[in-house]
Amino acid sequence: MSDVMIRVPAEVRDQLAAVAEARGTSLRALMQDIAAQTLTPEQIRERADRTRALLAERFGHYVSDEESAEMRRKMREAAAAHRATSAGTEPHP
């Protein structure tokens, strides 16, 4: 296994180190967990395609591109609201 150096601001490094410590793990293990949980755009498309196929096959519902776009917009808004609530600020539209 080769190592890679990633430069981040000191605040980010300190936050990641605090998260790793709170989880009782190393910074290396934390970063591996984050990478394993983060989907690539291709993986996201594949999951969306599988979900569309499942909805069509099992429920007879065909998700349009417009419905997909609206769901993505709502999910982005929900994520922004959650982040804002966690940070104690108002969400941005």
Describe this structure as you would to a colleague.
The protein is mostly helical and 93 residues long. It is built from four helices and no strands. The protein has helices at 10-23, 27-37, 41-59, 65-87. It is extended. The model has no long low-confidence stretch (mean pLDDT 91).
Q: Provide the structure class.
A: mainly alpha
Helix content: over 70%
Mean pLDDT: 91
Main sheet summary: none
Please compute the radius of gyration using only Cα atoms: 18 Å
Shape label: extended
Give, in order, the helices and strands.
HHHH
Strand elements, count:
0
Offer a concise description of the structure.
By secondary structure, the chain is an all-alpha fold. The chain is built from four helices and no strands. It is extended.
Topology:
Layout: H1 10-23, H2 27-37, H3 41-59, H4 65-87
Annotation keywords:
single chain, about 0% strand, mainly alpha, about 90 residues
